[in-house]
Amino acid sequence: MRIHPLTGEFAQRADETAFLVHQLPQTRALLGYTLVFCTLFYLAFSLSDLAALGYGPTYLKLCAARAVVAATAGTCAWLAYHRPLTLHATRIAASGAETVALACFTFIAVQRPDEFHWHAMSLAIMLIVIYLYIPNSFANALVLASAATAVFLVLTLKYGRLTAADGVTMVMLLVLANAFGALAARRFNQVSREEYQARVALQHTAARDHLTGCYNRRYLHETLMRPGQVRTPHHGGLLTVVLCDIDHFKRINDTYGHASGDAVLRSFAELLRHMTRDGVDSVVRYGGEEFLAILPGTDLDGGIHLAERLRTRFADTSVMTDDGKERMRTTASFGVACADPAADGGHHVLRDLIAVADKLMYDAKRGGRDRVHACCACSNPPAGLRRA
Ligand SMILES: Nc1nc2c(ncn2[C@@H]2O[C@H](COP(=O)(O)OP(=O)(O)OP(=O)(O)O)[C@@H](O)[C@H]2O)c(=O)[nH]1
User: Fold this and answer.
1) Which of 104, 293, 324, 372 could be 307's S-S partner, Cβ–Cβ 3.0 to 4.6 Å?
2) How many A from CA of 217 to the centre of ligand 1?
3) Which domain holds residue 76?
4) Is 289 a catalytic residue?
5) Which letter does DSSP use for residue 20 in this model?
6) Gap from CA of 338 to ligand 1 centroid (Å)
7) Position in ligand 1 atom list of the atom nearest CA 246
């Protein structure tokens, strides 16, 4: 997760998207709140139009411009609060409201050409709001803010009746507002992403087994066993679990030492993770030398196939001892159980399946080890699959 040095956002698109999705509820709330707040100020400034122009057609034109901004920003705020706007939609809402507000602002400035120095001050405040308060990407904020500044300065040259000294001061002021706005936005982006990185690292540490990198028992009980957490890809899909136990593991520890035993555990876990689907299946270190694979949308045949492949691959794999002098080889026993996750309203299916797989795995041990025992715990298993 590398942070881009210029924008303060994640350099990889996938990391940035994951961060933004995680932040989406706060982003929506911030967008709605900020737009409402800005809209109220935008409308309140019609008082200054009245004071400058008096009541008349020009004043009414400016009121209409302010009403357009209020309607756009208000709609975006309403959508942000009341509709579950997607990531993309929040960006469009933010950029849309900003564009309309800046366009109407330049229109108002041209209608009050004697006050360009005041307008510059208002624009500087708007720039800070764009960079810091309205949630948008760094690139969008930069493009909108610098384009608005450029347009404003061109209009000042054309309509503003400023002395050269005032003109230079105005340019400097707006360049400063852009520079500090961009720097502050970059800093803010960076800090929020560093915080997210720390949270992800912490979650990873809390959920994983240190030795093998598999999920730990806590994650299994607190997350995976929660009803609805393990989803099958389509309605009616089956759920299969494979419980694996390395055979005679104590002998490996006793013969080659604990560190060599650890190497065998890592090698088995690596094989298991490699053979299961990334982001779909979950691999848990269930006990000392016991591992659990949770396979959503997989029937008994699929579970047996995986267990058999694992069994043969592991039996063929030799692992180097810690001192690098010998190669160790052992086998593993497997219990495979399958059920319909919708049964029992989805409650306790995983827990019950693990209990069945545990029994099957011990049957495999008693049957001579290095084998797969399987059973379908569905209410109506396909013929021949009740016990394999
Ligand atoms: N190296 C290492 N050993 C571990 C770890 N966790 C548990 N063990 C050891 O794993 C061994 C498990 O032994 P047993 O439960 O008797 O099982 P086994 O020798 O594999 O026998 P069977 O399962 O019946 O084939 C014990 O000696 C534990 O100390 C670990 O993280 N690293």
Assistant:
1) 372
2) 17
3) 13-205
4) yes
5) H
6) 27
7) 20
Contact (CB, 8 A) for 87 and 24? yes
SS3 assignment, position 208: strand
Same domain, 297 and 165: no
Which of 289, 290, 308, 326 is the catalytic position?
Answer: 289
- Residue in 245, 252, 253 to alter for ligand 1 test, most ligand atoms within 8 A of Cβ: 253
Query: Are 225 and 337 part of one and the same domain?
Result: yes
Q: What is the pLDDT along the chain (388 residues), one digit of tens a residue?
A: 899 999 999 999 999 999 999 999 889 889 998 999 999 999 999 999 999 999 999 999 999 999 999 999 999 988 887 777 788 889 999 999 999 999 999 999 999 998 999 999 999 999 999 999 999 999 999 999 999 999 999 999 999 888 899 999 999 999 999 999 999 999 999 999 999 999 999 999 999 999 999 999 999 999 888 876 666 665 457 899 999 999 999 999 999 999 999 999 999 999 999 999 988 999 999 999 999 999 999 999 999 999 999 999 999 999 999 889 999 999 999 999 998 877 655 567 888 899 999 999 999 999 999 999 998 876 555 444 444 4
In a shared domain, residues 171 and 108:
yes
Amino acid at 29: A
Please state the ipTM of this predicted complex: 0.96
Residues with CB under 6 A from ligand 1: 211, 245-250, 253, 258, 261-262, 265, 288-289, 365, 369
Q: Does residue 52 belong to any structural domain of this protein? A: yes
- Do 274 and 192 share a domain, yes or no? no
Ligand 1 atom nearest 247 alpha carbon: 25
Is there a single domain that holds both residue 260 and residue 200?
A: no
CA 108/CA 384 separation, integer angstroms: 80
Phi, psi of 291 (to 5 degrees): -130, 150
Interval between CA 225 and ligand 1 midpoint (Å): 25
User: Residue 156: which residues within 8 A CB-CB, separation 6 or more?
Assistant: 116, 120, 162, 167, 170
